[in-house]
UniProtKB/TrEMBL annotation:
Family: Belongs to the LysR transcriptional regulatory family.
Stated name of the protein: Putative LysR family transcriptional regulator
Domain of life: Bacteria
SUPFAM superfamilies the UniProt entry points to: Periplasmic binding protein-like II, Winged helix' DNA-binding domain
Pfam families for this protein: HTH_1, LysR_substrate
Length: 302
């Protein structure tokens, strides 16, 4: 009979890329993971994983079995979650990915509240600014800000954020305050390197994309905020990065009479996974912590 712990060992090994990485993720010795995997192969009568000293790869049988094995584990986890929810208690693992900057700034209190409400949940959070595939990355759900555009995913909106043009008072004293899109384009910009057309503004004729001279390109919103504070140029950032800097005056909002494209925060998960009771509880908890409108939108005078 096929044992569930062998299926777990196979799926985690396939997703992690090695038995060593799988053992770390599962909190088990490499020998235990390897033996469970070997036992599953004996039960199925086929080799699932091709092992070598350099790398690990799936055989044709392993590639065929993987989506079915993942579905088995999802069904077991969802059934367990539903039973726990009916009894008023949620328990078990929940693996989440989130962007680094947003996670560092806002997820500490949110996770504290969630785990106080559901102490039996074993939560794992990984912060990563690279694209994380919620459909095949081994996570139960992924927090993202910005457009989703992936038909494999369900996206649950958690909160919104305006995106504001900001600069330091010193930069504006030295270089002047732009009041139109044309003037803005002549300034130094601190640009987010992962979006080619990041500065989009709503005008009477539709969206207008501005491409200022790049003073700095970087893939970190937090570093963009610090660069703007240091007077390196103008940045267009979500309020969840800059609400405190605007409140204490280290950054100043620039008003050019046009509204920039906003940012939305979503909790995404695969359609074929479905929203388990734990994912729903996690999303509900985040929304309660962030508020409606979220607390980072409540900036005095802005």
């Amino acid at each position: 009979m096929m044992k569930l712990d062998g299926v777990v060992a196979f799926v985690v090994t396939a997703e992690a890329g090695s038995i060593s990485a799988a053992s770390r993720r599962l909190g088990l010795a490499k020998s235990v993971v390897s033996e469970r995997l070997a036992e599953l192969e004996r039960t199925l009568g086929t080799t699932l994983v091709q092992r070598s000293t350099r790398k690990l790869s799936l055989t044709n049988g392993g590639r065929s079995f993987l989506p079915r094995a993942q579905r088995i584990l999802r069904e077991v986890e969802e059934a367990s979650s539903e039973l726990a929810a009916r009894s008023g208690k949620l328990a078990g693992p929940l693996r989440i990915s989130a962007p680094v900057g947003f996670g560092n700034l806002h997820l500490g209190p949110a996770l504290g509240r969630f785990l106080r409400d559901y102490p039996e949940i074993d939560l794992s959070l990984e912060l990563d600014d690279n694209f994380v595939d919620a459909a095949s990355g081994g996570f139960d759900a992924v927090l993202r800000h910005g457009a989703i555009g992936d038909g494999r995913l369900i996206a649950r909106r958690l909160a919104s954020s305006r995106r504001l043009l900001v600069a330091s008072p010193g930069y504006l004293d030295e270089c002047g305050i732009p009041t139109t899109l044309a003037e803005l384009e002549r300034h130094r910009g601190i640009l987010y390197s992962n979006r080619a057309s990041d500065w989009r503004f709503a005008t009477a004729s539709g969206w207008s994309v501005i491409r200022p001279r790049a003073g700095l390109r970087v893939n970190s919103g937090m570093l963009m905020r610090e660069a703007a504070t240091e007077g390196l140029g103008i940045a267009l950032l979500p309020t969840f990065f800059i609400h405190e800097a605007l409140a204490n005056g280290t950054l100043t909002q620039i008003d050019i009479g046009q509204q920039a494209e906003g940012a939305e925060l979503f909790l995404t998960y695969p359609k074929d996974h479905g929203a388990s009771a734990k994912i729903r509880a996690f999303g509900d908890s985040l929304r309660r912590t962030f508020g409606s409108p979220p607390y980072w939108e409540k900036i005095p005078g802005i």
